[in-house]
Amino acid sequence: MSQRTMVVDLDRCIGCKSCEVACKQENGVILGCTWNKVLTVGPTGTYPKVEMYFLPTMCQECKDAACVKVCPTGASYKSEDGVILIDKEKCIGCRYCMMACPYGVRTFNEETKVVEKCTLCDQLKAVGENPACVKNCPAKCRFVGDIDDPSSDVSQVIQKAGSDSVHVLPDVGNRPSARYILHSKTATWKE
Questions:
Q1: Residues 66, 19, 42, CA angle at the centre, nearest 5°?
Q2: CB atoms within 10 A of CB 162
Q3: Which of 67, 117, 175, 183 could form a cystine bridge with 97, CB 3.0-4.6 A?
Q4: 35: burial class by Cβ within 10 Å (0-12, 13-18, 19+)?
């Protein structure tokens, strides 16, 4: 079974938010909603030893996704390549999935009255392209691929970084598949 996911190299992320803009433009995300949000972690420490990094947050493509489990209509589902998607025709706007997501990365579209989220630009994958956030990142810090395939870009980036520098958002039994690379020379990973 494959697990398509994203890896973000935080050593390279400059916090420009090009990924947010590209996502909104490609997917028609309405004002007030974001499928991809860049957070600032820090600054922490005391001068002259101060650390800070930028943390893009998007769907973590969990292997055991709570959002899928709680959906009463089956609108939230997992595709064959492990990406969690929403069938907007089935979504009743109950927002159970939003409450179940431990990362707060789902949004409610007030215009269409359905829940939305990052799809890893499934529509672009269908034509052989990378997600808009990956294509438009000036720092080239985003990678998408099958994390279960050792020859994929994401697996190779993770291997090259070394296990001490590869991080995940807190796992609360949902097994997030997205990975973040942050070497100690850049900053200390914060939970």
A1: 80
A2: 10
A3: 67
A4: buried
Residue 139: exposure state from Cβ atoms within 10 A (0-12, 13-18, ≥19) = middle
Q: Which of 105, 133, 135, 131 is nearest to 120 (CA)?
A: 131
CA distance 128 to 107: 27
Please count the other Cβ atoms lying within 10 Å of the Cβ belonging to residue 53: 21
Question: What one-character-per-residue DSSP string does 29-84 give?
Answer: PPTT--SSEEEEEEEEEETTEEEEEEEEE-----TT-HHHHH-SSS-EEE-TTS-E
Please, which pLDDT band fits residue 191 given cuts at 50, 70 and 90? confident
The backbone torsions φ and ψ at residue 55, rounded to the nearest 5 degrees and listed phi first, read -125, 100
Q: Give the total residue count for the chain.
A: 191
> What does pTM read for this prediction?
0.94
The residue-averaged pLDDT of 47-52 equals 94
Positive or negative torsion for Cα 10, 119, 191, 168: negative
Backbone dihedral angles phi then psi of residue 27, each to the nearest 5 degrees: -105, 0
Question: Beta strand pairing status for 142-146 and 114-116?
Answer: unpaired
pLDDT tier at 49 (50, 70, 90 boundaries)? very high
Sign for the CA dihedral angle at 183, 184, 188, 191 comes to positive
| CA distance linking residue 155 with residue 145, whole number of Å | 8
